[in-house]
Amino acid sequence: MTPPAEHLPVFVYGTLRPGERNHAAYLRGRITSTTPACLQHTLLYDGPGYPYAVETAEPALVHGDLITPIPAEYESLLAALDHLEDYSPGDPRNLYERVAREVTRMDGATTRAWVYVAAPLLAARLRAAGSPLPDGRWPI
């Protein structure tokens, strides 16, 4: 993996959220904070035990959390998350793509963060045949 140009927090909206199955395994002892936040212009679709965020021009929100990695853990944590999400830069088989987006914290402030969104082929299938989750929250 090529290290990212900037160290950004990560917006999580599924199994990495506090209380969900991957939070402790991937994030315990590796983050400094968790802050409720939302991602605009994104719809959330249910997947096989986890959700997919799909970007849209529509006014829509996905609710989740902004996590801030411990600086010394940053590279290894991002590599672990890329592995969990089966993300490899430039691989057309990716289910997710890691992209930098503006995320809005509950106090109204915005922050650039890494977000794993559905890769283009999957996003097109979800838009054509999927049903967005109500209120942009997972689990429902």
Automatic annotation (TrEMBL):
Entry-linked Gene3D superfamilies: Gamma-glutamyl cyclotransferase-like
Q: Which organism is it from?
A: Streptomyces lasiicapitis
Give residue ranges for domain Gamma-glutamylcyclotransferase AIG2-like.
10-138
Which domain of life does the UniProt lineage start with?
Bacteria
Lineage per the UniProt record? Bacteria, Bacillati, Actinomycetota, Actinomycetes, Kitasatosporales
InterPro entries registered for this protein in UniProt = AIG2-like_dom, GGCT-like, GGCT-like_sf
Query: Pfam families annotated for this entry?
Result: GGACT
Protein name as catalogued: Gamma-glutamylcyclotransferase
